[in-house]
């Protein structure tokens, strides 16, 4: 009995370890390769595009080098610029979405607004659509209001994305009405209610909305390709998507650059993220 | 008791309603302009022809799209992806969440690791992926070393398996979190009772855990289906707008028709996708009402 249990324990840890390695490998590989000198990268990946060439598994740098980091941060500042463009766009979307979502989610959860159930259904339905479904008509609408080829074309649709409203509604509908009633009897007005009661009580939702939508828009690829004409205005995500094997070292380093903000958010707020995701369950 | 009191000429209830509308309207306006109106517009497009002048053509576009081989391939692949990817990710995530539900040393580490791909930009990982699976890449080099024939991973039917792999890699953590939350809602007393009744671990799983986890599992299936529609991004990162036939998805079809300015064909595909998703959502609500009414 004891032997069997120990065997099961090893089996469990073995399985979890294998999965963890598979999950982490692409990330670790990217990070490790970013610390190789250009010459080392060129040497090891010489065969990758050649017919009949070979590529060895090469994880640990022969010689630790900040070569590609020097290139990305100092000698080719256009990549760093893309990073800031990405950060600026994504932050604008996240902040805007947060304000809109808290207000609308609060309204849906706690006020008897007309067509409430219909709105909820429309929000869920459109939240689930792949991006391509509204591609053309969104393009036409953006053209009509003259936002095409400006960053507004990326920011505005992002701000009004239905997911945030959905998440906030889910969380706020679990908040007891009595708290609000009590504050009202104490003479609080709506603005005070929102700032002092609604916002604090959906903190985990706010944090996970920030992370999830930050990640989503940080990775955006389709929207800039379609709504922006000028490739030089593309954010970092699109540059990464057009990865070129001619400069692998740089690509790896930009990959690391793209991971930094999201990893930081994840590291700081993992618990709230988990709570928020659990709330996104339809109940 | 306060609802009857007049406040600046309005009843409390009416006033509340107005505040609600005021709070909701910023979102409503944006939602209408950037989501609802474009969607309705594209439904209208799907029934018209012409670029500058639109004429109503009924279901002509639908017939044309249904008959086009590109659409047939795209639709088949998208459904094949659903039918293979969703069961796989479900089994895996249920298994892992059952393991991770119990407290043991290192459990929080594993939970973090599984959640990590959700936040990591796919593009950062795709690079390593390409290094591994390029024709002259790492995996084929290993294959040659042990005497196997190299596989054309990205340009054969294997691309489909790779995409399934990426989909699971990306989404399994989200599913695990949802399932763990579901597992946490099962009251400890039930486990206690089943232990006192002398149930084996398997019986407990079969008659307590899984039935009570049903509603959550059902929701996770829906989420997994939706996430499978989002796999286009990974497919696109892996091999651009014209990938191997095995991973040519509905979204490729829509994207390419956009680039060829064939808005009508795109709108048809978009509306059909919408119908499928709506059907799934309605199915979810219906099944919930019917089977899980007792829950919460």
Relevant terms:
heterodimer, A: 283 residues, mainly alpha, MetI-like fold, B: 296 residues, two-stranded antiparallel ribbon, 12 helices, 74% helix
Number of strands of chain A: 0
Tell me the CATH architecture of the largest domain in chain B. Orthogonal Bundle
* CATH H-tier superfamily of the largest domain in chain B: MetI-like
Q: What is the approximate shape of chain B? A: globular
**Count of structural domains of chain A:** 1
Q: Please state the structural category of chain B.
A: mainly alpha
Q: Helical content of chain B, roughly?
A: over 70%
Largest sheet of chain A: none
* CATH topology type of the largest domain in chain B: MetI-like fold
Terminus-to-terminus distance of chain A: 41 Å
* Poorly predicted segments of chain A: none
Task: Tell me the number of helical segments of chain B per DSSP (H or I, 4 or more residues long).
Answer: 12
Tell me the number of structural domains of chain B.
2
Give your account of this protein's structure:
The complex is a heterodimer of chains A (283) and B (296). Chain A is mainly alpha-helical. Chain A has a single domain (79-279), classed as Orthogonal Bundle (MetI-like fold). Chain A has helices spanning 2-34, 38-44, 67-75, 77-110, 116-127, 135-144, 152-159, 162-172, 177-185, 190-201, 203-218, 222-227, 236-241, 248-279. Chain A is globular, with a radius of gyration of 24 Å. A two-stranded antiparallel sheet of chain B has the order 1-2. A two-stranded antiparallel sheet of chain B has the order 3-4. In chain B, 74% of the residues lie in helices and 3% in strands. Chain B has helices spanning 12-45, 60-67, 69-101, 107-119, 122-133, 138-145, 158-184, 188-196, 201-229, 232-239, 250-259, 263-291, and strands spanning 6-7, 10-11, 48-49, 55-56. Chain B is mostly helical and 296 residues long. In chain B, strand 3 (48-49) and strand 4 (55-56) form a beta hairpin. The longest helix of chain B is centred in the N-terminal third of the chain and has 34 residues, at 12-45. Chain B has 2 domains: 6-45, no CATH class; 60-291, Orthogonal Bundle (MetI-like fold).
């Amino acid at each position: 009995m004891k032997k069997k249990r120990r065997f099961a324990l090893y089996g469990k840890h073995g399985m979890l370890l294998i999965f963890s390695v598979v999950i982490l490998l692409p990330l670790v590989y990217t990070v490790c390769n970013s610390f190789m000198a250009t010459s080392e990268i060129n040497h090891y990946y010489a065969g990758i595009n050649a017919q009949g060439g070979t590529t060895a598994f090469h994880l640990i740098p022969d010689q630790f080098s900040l070569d590609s980091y020097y290139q990305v941060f100092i000698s080719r500042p256009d990549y760093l610029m893309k990073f800031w463009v990405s950060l600026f766009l994504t932050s604008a979307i996240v902040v805007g979405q947060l304000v809109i979502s808290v207000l609308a989610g609060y309204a849906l959860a706690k006020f008897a607004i007309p067509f409430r159930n219909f709105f909820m259904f429309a929000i869920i339905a459109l939240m689930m659509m792949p991006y391509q479904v509204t591609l053309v008509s969104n393009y036409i609408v953006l053209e009509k209001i003259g936002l095409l080829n400006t960053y507004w074309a990326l920011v505005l649709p992002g701000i009004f994305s239905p997911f945030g409203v959905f998440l906030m509604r889910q969380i706020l509908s679990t908040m007891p009405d009595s708290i609000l009633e009590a504050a009202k009897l104490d003479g609080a007005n709506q603005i005070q209610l929102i700032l002092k009661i609604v916002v604090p009580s959906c903190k985990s939702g706010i944090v996970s909305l920030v992370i999830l939508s930050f990640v989503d828009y940080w990775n955006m690829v389709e929207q800039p390709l379609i709504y922006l004409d000028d490739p030089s205005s593309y954010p970092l995500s699109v540059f990464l998507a057009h990865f070129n094997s001619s400069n692998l070292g740089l690509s790896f380093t930009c990959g690391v650059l793209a991971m930094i903000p999201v990893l930081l958010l994840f590291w700081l707020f993992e618990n709230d993220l988990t709570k928020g995701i659990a709330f996104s369950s339809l109940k | 008791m306060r609802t009857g009191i007049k406040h600046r000429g309005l009843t409390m209830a009416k006033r509340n309603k107005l505040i609600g509308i005021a709070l909701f309207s910023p979102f409503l306006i944006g939602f209408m302009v950037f989501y609802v109106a474009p969607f309705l517009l594209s439904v209208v497009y799907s029934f018209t022809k012409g670029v500058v002048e639109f004429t109503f053509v009924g279901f002509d576009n639908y017939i044309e799209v249904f008959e086009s081989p590109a659409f047939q391939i795209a639709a088949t692949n998208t459904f094949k992806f659903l039918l293979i990817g969703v069961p796989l990710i479900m089994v895996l995530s249920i298994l892992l969440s059952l393991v991770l539900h119990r407290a043991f040393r290192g459990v929080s580490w594993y939970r973090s690791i599984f959640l990590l791909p959700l936040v990591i930009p796919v593009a950062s990982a795709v690079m390593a992926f390409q290094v591994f699976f390029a024709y002259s890449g790492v995996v084929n080099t290993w294959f040659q070393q042990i005497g196997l024939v190299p596989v054309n991973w990205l340009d054969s039917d294997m691309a489909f398996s790779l995409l399934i792999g990426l989909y699971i890699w990306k989404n399994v953590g989200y599913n695990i979190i949802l399932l763990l939350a579901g597992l946490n809602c099962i009251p400890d007393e039930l486990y206690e009772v089943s232990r006192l009744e002398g149930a084996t671990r398997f019986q407990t799983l079969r008659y307590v855990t899984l039935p009570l986890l049903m509603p959550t599992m059902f929701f996770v299936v829906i989420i997994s289906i939706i996430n499978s529609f989002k796999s286009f991004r990974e497919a696109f990162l892996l091999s651009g707008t014209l990938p191997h036939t095995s991973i040519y998805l509905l979204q490729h079809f829509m994207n390419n028709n956009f680039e060829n300015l064939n808005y009508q064909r795109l709108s048809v595909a978009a509306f059909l996708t919408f119908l499928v998703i709506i059907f799934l959502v309605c199915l979810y609500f219906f099944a919930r009402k019917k089977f899980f009414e007792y829950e919460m």
